[in-house]
User: Fold these one by one.
Assistant:
Number 1:
Amino acid sequence: MIELPYMQNAFIVGALVSIVAGVIGFFVVLRGASFATHALAQIGFAGAAGAVLIGVEPVWGLLAFSLLGAGGMGILSARGSARDAITALVMTAALGTGALFLVLNRTYATDAFSLLFGTIVGISRTQVAATAALAVLSLLTVAAMYRPLLFATVNTEAAHARGIPMQVLSISFLACIAIAATTTIPTVGTLLIFALMVAPPAAATLLTDRPWRAIGLGIVLNLVCCWSGIALAFTTGLPVGFLIASFAALVYIGVRVYTTVTAP
Amino acid sequence: MLADPGVVQALLAGVIVAALCGFVGVFVVMRRQSFAGHAITDVGFTGGAGAPLAGLDPLAGLLAFSVIGSIVMARLGDKIRERDVATGVVLTASLGLGALFLFIQTRYVSQPAALLFGSIFAIRSGVLLTTMVVGAACVIALAILYRPLIFSTVNPETAAARGVPVKFISTAFLLIMGVAVAEAAQLVGVLLTTALLIGPASAAITFSRRVPWAILFAVIFGAVQMTLSIFLAYASYTWPPGGKGWPVSFFLGVLALGTFVIARFFSAGDSRRSESNEA
Amino acid sequence: MVKVLDRPVRRGSKLIGYVSQRTVVDPELPLRGRDFVGFGLDGEKWGFSLPSKQRAAQVTEALRAVGALAYADAPVGKLSGGEQQRLFIAQALLSDPKIVLLDEPLSNLDIASASEIVKVVDGLRRSHGVTVLFVTHDINPLIEVMDRVIYLAAGRAAVGPVDQVVREEVLSKLYGYHVDVIRVGDRVVVLTP
């Protein structure tokens, strides 16, 4: 299967997604931002539906909506409380709008569901290049704010006192998640970037306390889930999203059981 | 339009479900479990999509998955710190399964769409009665849990010291929420359920000083938002592009967010008191 | 078998009031100080409490005892740390305890609020006849009101009345390095390096 050009592309995209999700996922887990991640991916889906309606590439709709959603969530949460309720409300408003787009568009089902759940066939070199560009963009953003972000995550008040602009930081981080969610469009599906940003990185933080190791381990676990998912999808014909999400959940539960058993 | 029996059914069912979600939602928002509340609807969706594969009624699948999902979340996430990830992992697994179920039964593509976005204008008459019964059961169960539930939400350590079974209560609450949400989702769709669960309750909480008031306002907001959404959706058949109604989900999602933003805007002046006390 | 107040130890005894280490209260919680304190009366019982004059009077009495009546109807989450601490203590008092456990009630409080809380607790132990077990890192605000000290440091303990434990030679031995105990007028201050 590795000789097939589209499979090569799928593996490359899988690797890029794994790296991005591993790095950002580390912060998602530390900041308890799983819900925001899930919401941004779904908001992006609504945007993709809107883009189809006005005849634009779905990627742009996805990017625009998830960035807007990130800004909305960040601004509304400025007062600190009710963060998860706000996430839920912004998400349902966007999804309702997505439902409207789908109704107005008449063409429903198949296209939308491949955006949600991913596919491995027919990924072109241009799509690989686009994914790579977005991946680099989100990684650079994270790299630029690595230190303040980590500081603000582990010790919010001290970071605030040091003059770190918390709202800018948290909106930028949400924007990073939004961009990362867009990288997954061709292969993994918007719903499943969520799987890779939460389960394997959470498993990694159970295994080590050091940031760099946790990030590295998260990437490795993501690669294992992603590549074996793609390979199995090719040989069995099962949906790639199902395989990757199941592996991700199994990795977390496996590590959780392992650390519970070996705990002193 | 009230001459249309479909609309009357929709209004009845919608208002009952909205009131139930408003009631349960107050506790969900107070306990900061919006994510779990939303995740359970998604998990239920997977169950609903999978049940026909096993020859079962989608409703049975929806309910079964919601209940199992809430128990697993409660088991995996004891500490607050773990709760977010636990919910995420359960959601991950269920989204993956959902992808598989949808893949296997491509013939029924319209069914998942109905599960997601609801079909409130096409409610079977028997369903209404079950909704009322299950809704009443949820309200009674919550009334029994009421005091220790709030105590352990506000002050878990002291509650535990006073002999409140904190863990049992949090599992029981997730279960009640799972059942309520499954009931709502089968009537109005997965999307509307999250909006109904979180929207009215979080708006009511921004300005209420007491739990009973918060519950009252949440129930009223929910019922009003639902009624308005149904009217607008009905009216939208004549709107552009014409010939097709805009989805109820759209109106409800926008109204839920809008009500919350307005409520927060007006309650912002109310927090002065605390600032003067901070000194 | 360990017995407290001549009874075997079990979870949820009403005879022991407990104020846990300060937890952050959600500022948007729809709960008044009054409702919050009311949990001390019947928070563990199933169902909901119906409005009753007797119940309201008991809650008001507890609020008065800690001097929190002024903000009894304000949302708990929007009160300051010192105000919340008084509510926690009022809550612990409502089960009519014989012993009250306070776990670091002065942490995160400014000096003025801390000394007010100490005054409140000192007044309560006299008026309500309760034994107070007060866990703290800073002994100074308490020196004048304590009967006995269990001083834990470096894995060792010194137990006894204040004037026998809070002494330079005892504390220095406990810590393993020199500790000053200074008397200013009739006040005592412990200075650790």
Note: The domain at 5-267 of chain B is CATH 1.10.3470.10 (ABC transporter involved in vitamin B12 uptake, BtuC).
Number 2:
Amino acid sequence: MQIPVEGFMYPNEVELQWSVLIVLYPFLTGLVAGAFILASLERVFMVKAVKPTYRLALLTALAFLIVAPLPLQLHLGHPERSFEMYLTPHRSSAMAMFGFVYLWYLLAVLVVEIWLDYRRDIVVMSQGTTGWKRLVYRVLTLGSTNISEHALHIDERVGWLVTVIGIPSAFLLHGYVGFIFGSVKANPWWSSPLMPVVFLFSAMVSGIAIVMLLYMLMCRVRREPIDMDCVDTVAKYLFYTFIIDFSLEMLDLIHRIYEADESFRSLDFMVHTRLFLSQVVIQILLGTVLPILLIGLTQVVKLAATQRKRIYVAAGCLTMIGIFAMRWNVVIGGQLFSKSFLGYTTYKMGFATREGLLTAVVLTVLPFVILGVLVKLLPPWPEKKSALSSVAAAAYGAD
Amino acid sequence: MKAFKDAGHLFRLASVFLVGGVLFLALRGFLVPRSFGQYGHYRGNAIKETAALPISYAGHQVCESCHADILEVKSKGVHKRVACEACHGPLAKHADDPASIQPAKLDTAVLCVRCHEANLAKPKSFPQVVSAEHSGGAPCDTCHQPHSPAIVAVAGASQ
């Protein structure tokens, strides 16, 4: 397949090495970090209004974190060799060390926090269910059914500590993704010390937006009223984070324009031609300015709950599109121009190939499937008073 | 004691991590080759194994020791810095036993375009053609002599 090339490209620049799956990877990781930071608002910063989203945010983070390495595995020619980075870690490689950051975040933070938070429910459900579900819950109890008040108090305190450790870990997780791009000094589109910070704040934006959307969707599916105080607070935090994110991105842009180094003319031409639709129209106008204006409207004008809900859904969806476009423009945009600054190539995305569109769609849907299973197994909403509380009382009595 | 009793589940969780860690270390001890790290961040034995591999390329000096006539032609053309085996492939076996092992005949219609097919990414000064228009698929050595490819006009020949 002939790749359309304009101007002069070095031979190894014509075909893009990092595909749509590498776009998907920071997008998924960002959702993890953002969802976790939203969860920490309730746990550490005592923002009680967002409590209804706390557990959902943790489960969302877990579902996306499980899928996050899959795009990388599919990108590798020999995925089985990726395990080598754990067996023989190479300390001078940022990518290799990321494996440990991922593992730390998954096992030491997210799984532990979810387990501690759900332990009471797990014990209760291990006694109130039958069949394979009972078996799963019993394994999850690790053989301990102690849900006495003191034991739960210990869980609460340890869980708080894990969240406190988890916040810098979440910052590390997504800041690290930005660092991997920002430290490629040969690529002027990526090489910027602002990159980790921009990635981090865009991660928070996307994570908060997805949890807000999922919470509203789940309330609708369960035919339960949406806690508007909660959604308003989440939207407020989304607004603040978005303003910081947008300011940082504009700071980066203004700095590049003012500095106007030797790469500027080439990159400026690229933004006005090949990236115009994805960067200017989708990322900046539709995916950033419009949602900020929409949520900003709810902050300054008193609107009815129905109108606010509609605005939040529209702004949330636009945010997700905008953040995906941001990842696209970073990853794909950074490979479209020649290091000679004299030419541009084109990204040809396959369809049913290993790194094609179909694979990307499947990997985007997969976290939602996993989340569905997690929600079924560990319901994030308050238990129905009648049935389970009697089992809980019995379990408490047993200890 | 009550605090320990009520924190029992945390010890169980810590045990799961401990068992996981021990299993990982055992797996690592089994999977990482003994010679790993002997000289650097790689398997030390790989050097001996690579050194023991049969040599495939003879090197242009070996070719030139027999094919002086080709060297004479090649040294005057633009391909003078292209190594013999870049086009002819690895020929150490031929160099060891020239009589019984002969290199395969090359198809110049396929070989030359690997470098000379037109591509915008190549510098303009590099000779390149759209082969379909230039020769219509005919072998390049119909007109060009690969060891010195410039076509020299023969005195008195009609253009």
Note: The first helix of chain B runs from residue 2 to 6.
